[in-house]
DNA sequence: TCAAAAGTGTTTGATCTACACCCATGC
DNA sequence: GCATGGGTGTAGATCAAACACTTTTGA
């Protein structure tokens, strides 16, 4: 840092934007809102907000996420900081983008109405304001990279889930199909799932066993890196 | 974003910091400077600077890097944005950190003296100002992740390099040892190196063949992801 | 002639892929 | 009793890991 610039005010504003992913059992989705103020009133947008003087960017992202979803303690990770000169047409604003993974079932209809929010399939996102489409593309890439080796997929599912649900989630994230025998074998061989004595019977007559992610076993591994796919 | 805050001035300053990696043939190193102004005068630090109104963060990072090293067109990538409330003891400053890979031979002695800069082995970095040690740790993790599947290692070597040099580089980055037969087999099987009819004879009597990275062949692969290690 | 680093192949075990049938149940 | 999705095993191919000797040449 050059000493002479230390006390200058940058006059550049700082925002955070949240890419919120959810999974409805069939497709990976992102939560978007219809923007309620100028500029770009009425257009679809990511949820965001300005960084306040007394909060970190993580705090701000959590504040925004909580405001939109009512949820706390959500899995969230910094994605990238976007600083193109004209990315926001109204002012010079840089945006620190975060991506979050939530269980779509915990996001209420009420919240959806309150904020004019809507879930869009990741492959069918409309044209968004500013560089928000770019943010989503980047978030999807990072999500793909992370779920291949970290236990994040579970964040998008209910606490109890079935192996077929998990497989369809991975298929949605990677836009591919996976062999169900090989998938089940590999996932179970990681030794981080615990099978319950309950079955989920919504999607089939036979019913599929429910599993929970076993944090204790996962932490014992301490390699941090696994191969989910 | 909340409409009412759109026109407020954040009064938070924005800086960039550069984690500059180099490789001297034996160890992975980072370039640090002795800070020439308050606060924290005389302490070791990463090179940084404030973001100017009319430049992107990438521009600023390149400006800082060019100022310190005289180099342009350097491999550089955004690492993370650090926004802890008291990370800079003098003011509220958030820092967008970048990591850069340079060929250590292109960094002149003269530049080193001009800026009171010094290369430190990655495992022997002194206590730095603010959160700069954290930045370096995070940069090393990202470097490890990236070089496993992307052709970045070459950025740290001269244009012409030998396979043993490349292997020692990977050994330094991962703090491990690699079997030279397996390494050579794997690297050459990627099909992205071109062997020259020259040998490098500094480090052995027999001499080792020089190779260059073949961008054309690499781009033809278009998978983007390889397995270097 | 010897010291120092370069170069090279094979065997073994592990992992990945492809693939098809029976099971349990609600209708 | 039949349609629907759940659950399971094996064989072949590919990939990763371990491992030791010969070559070159400057000193």
TrEMBL record, chains A, B:
Alphabetical list of PROSITE patterns matching this protein: NUDIX
Source taxon at top rank: Bacteria
Nudix hydrolase domain span: 11-144
Record Pfam families: NUDIX, WHD_NrtR
Species this protein is from: Pseudochryseolinea flava
InterPro entries, A to Z: NUDIX_hydrolase-like_dom_sf, NUDIX_hydrolase_dom, WH-like_DNA-bd_sf, WH_DNA-bd_sf, WHD_NrtR
Matches recorded under PANTHER family: ADP-RIBOSE PYROPHOSPHATASE, SLR1690 PROTEIN
Coiled coil regions in record: none
UniProt-recorded name of the protein: DNA mismatch repair protein MutT
